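Weekly modeling sync, notes
Attendees: S.R. (lead), two postdocs, one rotation student

Agenda item 3: backlog of single-chain predictions. S.R. asked that every request posted to the team notebook include the full sequence so nobody has to chase files. The rotation student volunteered to paste the first one in as an example of the format we agreed on. Action items at the bottom.

Example entry:
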Amino acid sequence: MKQNIPWEWYRTFLAVMKEGSLSGAARLLAITQPTAGRHVAALESALGLVLFTRSQTGLQATDAAVAIQDHAQAMENTASMIERSAASFGSHAAGLHGVVRVSASEIIGTEVLPPLIAQIKEDYPQLSIELVLSNRMQDLLNREADIAVRMTTPVQEQLIARRLGSIEIGLHASSSYLARHTAPENIDDLFTHTLVGFDKTTPFILQALKQYPQLSRERFTVRTDSDVAQLNLIRAGAGIGMCQVQLARLPVPLERLMPDFFAFHLDTWLVMHEDLRYSKACKTVFDILAAGLQAYISKAGL
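Predicted structure, as returned to the notebook:
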């Protein structure tokens, strides 16, 4: 009969995969290096597999280790989600408490959510909010997050989703850039300018390119895959680029260019795993974020 393998062995295994050494894993988990070594050796023995080989740079993961890593990571995500869920159910004498993990894109997470999180902490000081910047829907299904802001229509049945509206993306430039360069009036003019945009093709970029095939990667002579970096490059006057219409007002006012040519819309959803529907903490955070994001989206028409 196979023995039950303690979760600690898998946790140590994941730490070694992340750090590449027993010493690094020990520091990460606040255990001793010999303990980390015993955990790995015991897991190898229990599974009948060699998970690591020694190299000059540390421990090298074998094919067997790589094959089981995602399964072990799913276990860790589930364990973390159980801890967050347990903490968030019920009430506390001094008010709502628990841990809620929120996932959002880089732009939404840095430009839009901070004041909403500040509001949540003011109203519910005993709530702990963890903000993760990610565009992956899998973070919800794998329990890496409790709530997510997403720009694609959710299709997974395990998710509770609320449509918040549509965020418009437009071409913008700063006043400092336009003071040095005449604003383009047509597509030919546009391509004489410095364009700020993407480097690697993502699902969002593919979606945009279907509508605007002229805006291929080669057209952008300032490229970065960070949406925040793109926005700040536009604000700094590096060139013309795409940004959310709502973000063109502050802190650096941007001028929208050629709206008749380029107007791209992103359906925006707030999503939560259905297992959390009875969590008071998650429901409270979900409702506050939904109201705040809907208010943000409505600013486009102001």
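Discussion: group reviewed the output briefly. Residues 81 and 212 are 40 Å apart (CA to CA).
Action items: rotation student to repeat for the remaining queue; S.R. to check formatting next week.
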